[in-house]
Amino acid sequence: MEKLTTAVLGAGRIGAIHATNIAAHTDATLVAVADVDASAAKRTAGETGARVASIDAILSDHGIRAVVICTPTDTHADLIMRAAAAGKAIFCEKPVDLDITRIQACLAEVDRAQVPLMIGFNRRFDPSFADLARRLRSDQAGAIELISIVSRDPTPPPAAYVARSGGLFRDMMIHDFDMARFLMAEEFVEVFAYGSALIDRQIGQAGDVDTAVCILKTATGRIAQISNSRRTSYGYDQRIEVHGSLGLLAAGNRTATTVTRATADGFATDSALPFFLERYAEAYRLELGMFVRAVLDGQAIAPNGRDGFAAARLADAATLSCKSGRPIPLTPGQ
Ligand SMILES: NC(=O)c1ccc[n+]([C@@H]2O[C@H](COP(=O)([O-])OP(=O)(O)OC[C@H]3O[C@@H](n4cnc5c(N)ncnc54)[C@H](O)[C@@H]3O)[C@@H](O)[C@H]2O)c1
User: Fold this and answer.
1) Looking at residue 1, what is its pLDDT?
2) Which ligand 1 atom is nearest residue 276's CA?
3) Which atom of ligand 1 is nearest to the CA of 34?
4) For the whole prediction, is pTM greater than 0.85?
5) Contacting residues for 113 by C-beta, under 8 A, at least 6 apart
6) How many angstroms does the Cα of residue 11 sit away from the middle of ligand 1?
7) Are 152 and 210 in contact (CB under 8 A)?
């Protein structure tokens, strides 16, 4: 059976995970790994049986059908365009880019080249969140009225990361914007956001926030609310609740074990799993599996470039709302 010959560009935290998952996939072969840091490329290539190669060599290699882009955010748009021009199927980590105009240019190039493009909104593939979405679609909660998403990191990122990140809404809440769109299945027409720097003085000095809430409304009046924080004392806090006309669907945190200790002081369990590498290990495996199968079978891909663009629009609107103190209207389809 044909295997998807694939290369990973960028072998940092997330690149190493994707490389491992491709190498382990029965329908894919990890051929090459590229990284400007030669030691990172060598480590991941050594762990997966791939070879180290430059991005130029990978893009001009007709034996490689797909690339998985895991380099820093400000390189994504350029690499997507180069990979599209080279005729590769593309998986790119979120976000597509920090600038909406560049995202549009990038998607135009992908359309022109007619290559598949998947964006790494991995949370859609988390087994609990995916099941919650399936149940919503089969009407188990009735008509959606209110979606609540809690998404809190255990610790703030380093100042250097914050400076290049595009801010909390474009870097972190982008995942939740995609999840809100995915669950609601109706576009949002208004966005309002509050944000504060309560945790890390350096984040405030960089003009960013580390604590934020966003409220989004659809044309039919359905509401989503997102709560983000860059610090918790109890692990990576990832929860979703959907309230509908027939009832409630909720997916909670995952813990390392299900053991509960009960004493006169109450009930105690493990903390939530530490961070994204642990919490979403299965989601990362499943999303790459979906990419491999969709490319090999020529099926439609989701989340795709349009989803990346739509989430970026919401992030821009939230950033503007947070700065201006005003709700930001959005015209669907623009
Ligand atoms: N979906 C998720 O859950 C998730 C999680 C983490 C990161 N990300 C995204 O993945 C991307 C990478 O994040 P990370 O945390 O793995 O970063 P990282 O810094 O750990 O890794 C990035 C790697 O890319 C390499 N690199 C930098 N510029 C390069 C270039 N021009 N060509 C080739 N290699 C280059 C670096 O040397 C580094 O090894 C970011 O866009 C981030 O938003 C997504």
Assistant:
1) 77
2) 3
3) 33
4) yes
5) 84, 85, 87
6) 7
7) no
